[in-house]
Write a structure and sequence with these properties.
The chain has about 350 residues and is mostly helical. Helices cover about 75% and strands about 0% of the residues. Strand 1 and strand 2 form a beta hairpin.
Amino acid sequence: MDHDRPRGLTRPRPGAGTRGGGTGALVARRLLLLPVLAGVVTLVMFALAQRSPFDPVIAALGERALTLDGPTLEAMRARMEDTSAVQQWLTWWGNALTGDLGYSSSQRAPVSTVVGQRLPWTLGLVAASLVVSIPVGVALGGWAGTHPGSVLDRLVGPGMLAVQASPPFWIGLIAVWVLAVALGWLPTGGATSPQASGVEPGDVLRHAVLPVLVLALAHLPWFVLVVRDASRDALVGAPVRAAWARGIPRGRLLRSHAVRPALLPLVTVLGVRVPELITGAVLVETVFSWPGIASATVDAALRLDFALLAALTVLTTVLVVLGNLAADLAYRWVDPRVGQRDG
């Protein structure tokens, strides 16, 4: 018998059935739900856009509308007002399914080209920030939770709350002022140097240090505080007391019976914060002029680039659904009982 395995984290018995068909059924349900959700979100977006006070012709054509004469613009406005939101929605999806997402007036390029060029920058930034913030959060929160009353525990609580209360753009501006302007250690913004002839990995890494650290710092309080509180709760639980009674070494006991159960709420927080990862990237990309999809969203909103906004809305919906699916799969991996109960 494995006495060291914590209660609640045991692997399921071979052949144990699941009520809803297991992981495959979960993935299938989420993937089937994805087009329905994207359709509903875009339909609401078209309905809101039609009732907005902005000029629909300017929203559709952008600066190209300045090249048209008055009668032509009025005719276009009358034709668009006669077209319902559902008809616009069906037309947009008909074109989108053939690969035509329209033309971005703010970026002066096809929407598909803008998304293809900018999406990797945002995904790389968010992934790098998670790679930094999750291990640091688990280490800091686990140490503070398993050493209550220590100096680190007393510093972690107020320190993380102060960081949590600070807006990411404010942290970014302070980081630029200290590390880039005052000390001159890192670039102030952008993804490559102005004199660079192309995308060079070393140059990109140097430019990515500040935005990655700022975005990671913005996420860090959630991970640290959740792991700290969960580890502290686990210390007073029956599994830990039983492990103490069996004489398991302290380090092994804390890792297996206090910190490891804290991974469950950490996974939950990750799943809930997927939308905030994207919105947080919007602010950081804007401060650091990072050429990602989030900064393009700000430009599209300011310049009424409706074609790009529609595509980014669908893209954000897809990322949120897939992010929550990944969190659910990770949750089942950490605690297989979840799959047995919920299917």
